[in-house]
Amino acid sequence: MPAMSCFVDAAVAPPPGYPWSSSLPAPETFSGVPSLTNTTTSITSSAATIDQPHWSPSHSAALYQIDCWGAPYFSVNSSGDISVRPYGTATLPHQEIDLLKVVKKASDPKSSGGLGLQLPLIVRFPDVLKNRLESLQSAFDFAIQTQGYESHYQGVYPVKCNQDRFVVEDIVKFGSQFRFGLEAGSKPELLLTMSCLCKGSPEALLVCNGFKDAEYILLALVARKLLLNTVIVLEQEEELDLVIDLSQKLAVRPVIGVRAKLRTKHSGHFGSTSGEKGKFGLTTTQILRVVKRLEQSGMLDCLQLLHFHIGSQIPSTTLLADGVGEAAQIYCELVRLGACMRVIDIGGGLGIDYDGSKSADSDVSVSYNLEEYASAVVQAVQFVCNRKSVKHPVICSESGRAIVSHHSILIFEAVSASVNDVPPMSSHSLQYLVEGLTEDGRADYRNLSAAAIRGEYDTCLLYADQLKQRCVEQFKEGSLGIEQLAALDGVCDFVSKAIGASNPVRTYHVNLSVFTSIPDFWGIGQLFPIVPIHRLDQRPGVKGILSDLTCDSDGMVNKFIGGESSLPLHELEGDGGFCGGGGRYYLGMFLGGAYEEALGGIHNLFGGPSVVRVSQSDGPHSFAVTRAVPGPSCGDVLRVMQHQPELMFETLKHRAEELVHDDGGMDQAWLASGLARSFHNMPYLVASSSCCLTAAANVNNGGYYYCSDDSYGSVADSATAEDEQWSYCCA
């Protein structure tokens, strides 16, 4: 501590009663700590090592654990970009897709050959979706073949995971050869599954879950009438009377399932709907009453499916086998009671290893792979059925999270980063600070000086913090000025750095709404892998957390996989590209293809991201964008809250006509055009380089800021008619 004690003694004036030096020396450099005149760069001093030759993409892959949570679909290529392997382990080197090239194709202006879409952006890879479905089917087929199971696997996709039209249509298309079906949990979901399965396999199951009223059951019976392989699963005992009554009126013989409440309980967060006190399903007593009621109605043969759900993210095959074994016992008992049982639906629960730890003790990981999951299920069902001499049932699962999570990536930009902006200390400012201190404050300063001389680090922090509290109180009382408070920050910052106690974590401001695009992080603390998608051939020199655009303190991501409270990041180049200079810095959130889009809200009226679908191709960049859709505009999100953008525009336009005159600063036509464009643009921030007018670039714009048509306004054909509706105002 000698250099620090020299700084404290020499650089800061002593309290009254001690002689002042007429010439105070500048602060000395503390050994191992940056000079006080350069404190703003202390946190990021490691940036000088970013381009060290020994750092390679493989180091970044290990740092971000990409090979753990991302295999076999994501890796780091030799350029330092995230690479997508659309066919998993079967992907050939020339088929890998550079994610950065996809983002540039989507976001570059049309004049540069891009699509002009604004970020944030969801990139969908239907090839990955197809591979996930095929891998799941293959895992069960292998388990069935190797264990001599005497029936087959026939999965369904629960559309609640992601109801996007193209996702559901892809699953029906890709799964047709496997008789893959769909599951619905509400009336609108039932309508979309009915429509989509008209193009699927006639044997594909349409499983109707969720609470039901007469209209829901009527729709399900109509689906049966349309020759869709529909099963009405009873979630409540009261639903049975509606099924019996309506089916008789329509002359439709229904296929009925029951959802059982198992005793087996998943102890993690996602197991809250399992166990005897779970939200869904029938107890054994209620199941017996259902059997009796069906028998009395001459419809016991309609009972053909048993459904259960232990909970999402089942952590281990031990728990899985326990639950499946219990359900298989119920299945066999229903056979004994005379039901024509055919299918055991094991529900969801096939988990995703979000952090790559392969741990059974975490809500964000699982300790098994697809093959181990399928083997455990088949073995558990087979064991019970063989013991009871019951014919092996068709095994059905509702593995939505496992099917869709990997195929979708959320891309967003860092627009700026916080800077440690403590001013450099000068002898004048330090002397000015001490002159304004109370006697107690001067005593704290003397104690700080003495602790520094003795090399007592903890005591230095104690007195520095105490001094800071006294100064803040003085500032509130008006006896200290803002310049003195700034000088105090310099003293405390120097002390923290000198003893290695400063906080190196910086805040990166991202062009995103956590509430819209990562709602599970805000709602339940769900963690997703977040990684820079480029510059991975460079050493990250900063630890950061992410702060979104919303005016809400919860709009932050400050927990990351691996139990980390910060994320290794790179320094932004220039200003991150949002004020006309420097390069963009892109981050990706992975494994978020399930639930996030459906759960997202419009807090602060930030709507959803733009979306592109990308397929592998034999072109020069190994990919083709097959669909591009801009995110909701300001007008779109205003309509959600019952506003009328057209009337709002008219109100503003008339106001402008009354108050704005064509005096060379801002004319009415220009203002009307800008207002119209603002209703059409997305709510997110736009880089200056993508805009035709800014306050700095055009004196005639009056400080108005809006995006050019060339950027992204004309991407979607669907927007053309709406643009024409507003065009008269720009004449």
For this entry, give a set of tags.
about 725 residues, alpha/beta, Lyase, Ornithine Decarboxylase, Chain A, domain 1, 4 domains, 10-stranded mixed sheet, 8-stranded parallel sheet, disordered C terminus
Describe this structure in words.
This protein has 731 residues and is α/β, with parallel strands linked by helices. The chain folds into 4 domains: 55-123 and 407-420 and 504-631, Beta Barrel (Lyase, Ornithine Decarboxylase, Chain A, domain 1), CATH 2.40.37.10; 126-405, Alanine racemase (TIM Barrel), CATH 3.20.20.10; 427-499; 637-685, no CATH class. Helix content is 38%, strand content 13%. The chain is built from 25 helices and 23 strands. The strands form 4 sheets. Strands 4, 13, 14, 15, 16, 17, 18, 19, 20 and 21 form a 10-stranded mixed beta sheet that branches. An 8-stranded parallel beta sheet has the order 5-6-7-8-9-10-11-12. A hairpin with a 5-residue loop joins strand 1 (74-76) and strand 2 (82-84). The N and C termini lie far apart (72 Å).
